Amino acid sequence: MVMKNLTAASEFILLGLSTSPHLQVFLFLVFFVIYIITLLGNAVIMLVVHNDPHLHTPMYFFLGNLSFIDICYSSVIVPNMLHTFLVERKTISLSGCITQIFFFLFFATVEGLVLTAMAYDRYVAICHPLHYTAIMKRWVHIQLASGAWVTAFFYSLTNTLLITDLHFCRPSLINHFSCEPPQLFKISCSDPFTNQLVIFTVGATLWGTAFLITLSSYVLIISAVLRLHSVERKHKAFSTCSSHLTVIFMYYVPILFRYLKPTTHTSQDQEKLISVVYLIITPMLNPIIYSLRNQEVKKALGNFFRRTG
Known about the structure:
Layout: E1 11-14, H1 24-51, H2 58-86, E2 91-93, H3 94-127, H4 132-135, H5 138-163, E3 173-174, H6 181-187, H7 193-226, H8 231-260, H9 268-293, H10 295-308
Parallel strand pairs: 1-3
Antiparallel strand pairs: 1-2
Helix pairs in contact: 1-2, 1-9, 1-10, 2-3, 2-9, 3-5, 3-7, 3-8, 5-7, 7-8, 8-9, 9-10
């Protein structure tokens, strides 16, 4: 009876990073610059991987995938975020919010799975170098990447369809700068228990498995590298893997902290800052990390800029 007397919400009001009107233009400029760097940096990595024959290997195939994902991932959130900095009424429609959640879950999940595939690739390359070409054939790394995209699609679709069954009542205020499942669960006027159960159990299984495979791969990699007698080979192995480990650390830690830590222990401002890290900062830093920490990418970038300069 109560539900019948409530007016269904057709849009949400995003409170954003800050309610101070004096900060809006400053925040717009900061995140606009970050977004441009993200687009240019990842686009350059994709072009370099595509144009340099020396980088036509499974590792850089996954890196190209990762750069494309980062462009899409960032584009799901930042353009709408920039728009809200410049308008007085910071709203997003119900359909727009659900669409944003679908693509957020999709690209967040596919990025995590591609990072796992990259960890497995490095494990085979360093721990089984003589069998690398036999194990990581072209169809294998294509299947790994395709599996990541397909799995992410169905995971995202399942959670998004469940969210469409929730009811939202006016006024609907989202104390955030984007739509994420936890934010909608907080403002739902129907019970989100099923949604929370699915996103936690399926998500914990999927992400937990991916994280354990990644962690196990690098434990074995580090063990194998420490047994190498050649200092040059050790340096090359660590140089290649350190960039990937840095990206994994920057990606997994804030997401796991955001979704596994009890909300009662985290303020809303802390949640926003954590979301900024994995939604906006990490996609910008990924190409920079790979450019600075990976000698092959640095060499390919030098050749690319010499040819285009």
